[in-house]
Amino acid sequence: MKIFLDTANLGEIRRFNEMGLLDGITTNPTLLFREGKDPHDTMRQIASLVRGDVSLEVVSTDYEGMLEEGRRLRSCGNNVVVKVPMTSEGLRACRTLTAEGIPVNVTLVFSPNQAILAAKAGARYVSPFIGRLDDIGQDGMELVETIMEIFAQYEFDTQVLVASVRHPIHVVEAARLGAHVVTLPPKVLDRMLLHPLTDLGLESFLNDWKHLQDSPKP
Ligand code: G3P
To answer: Would you kindly state where each structural domain of the chain is located, as residue ranges?
Structure first.
């Protein structure tokens, strides 16, 4: 399973990149807004920092606008994947951009039917938003399970990119279902690293080593 970071924060991207943990990045207009910087400059920098796929989202809602914007975003780097919304215009743009050799991530997917249509439109990634479904009392992970089951019946090249991840248990569940990618907010990736027994165990090893140095040897 690939791990993407879901952020537009350059510092966080550098930090996890240095750990060798990142297979790619996803961004969206809200994440860029949170950074409060020039979004075009930030998107260019992200594309150059990361070797894997970097999803950059269009804000046009019409077919022609999405094509024009998608082509411009792609000029930020050969690793750029154009993110389009799950609408009829978005699917049309997905088909055209894909035919031009520009990969597409269809975002804001909330049903198996939407995922099927995105795959039929040739998307490289389909992004079910699981946390937002959980928020309204539906089981987001059940959607991932259904999409994985459907995709296994066919020869779609589309990868399931689990988005709107809120906690580490989502990651384990996505991995058990064989999801191709999870995109994680930095705080979730940080939490995946931690276990109190690791900290306690390390502390005790280091203390014992110190005692060994301090104690007289026969
Ligand atoms: O990648 C999509 C993701 O950023 C949405 O997450 O937490 O805004 O539902 P969230």
So the answer is: 2-214
The total of other beta-carbon atoms located within 10 Å of residue 88's CB is 9
The predicted-structure confidence for 105-163, as pLDDT tens digits, reads as follows 999 999 999 999 999 999 999 999 999 999 999 999 999 999 999 999 998 999 999 99
pTM over 0.85? The answer is yes
Ligand 1 geometric centre to CA of 156 (Å):
24
Catalytically annotated residues: 83
Residue nearest to atom 9 of ligand 1 (CA): 164
With CA atoms as reference, report the closest residue to 168 among 144, 148, 184: 184
Give the Å distance between the CA of 170 and the centre of ligand 1. Answer: 13
Q: 12 with 5: CB under 8 angstroms?
A: yes
> Which one-letter amino acid corresponds to residue 138?
Q
- Superfamily holding 2-214: Aldolase class I (3.20.20.70)
Q: What is the pLDDT of residues 33-58, one digit of tens each?
A: 999 999 999 999 999 999 999 999 99
Segments of 61-184 assigned E as strands: 80-85, 104-109, 125-128, 159-162, 181-184
pLDDT of residue 33: 98
Name residues contacting ligand 1 (CB within 6 A).
6, 26, 28, 129, 131-132, 163-164, 183
Residue 218's pLDDT is what?
A: 76
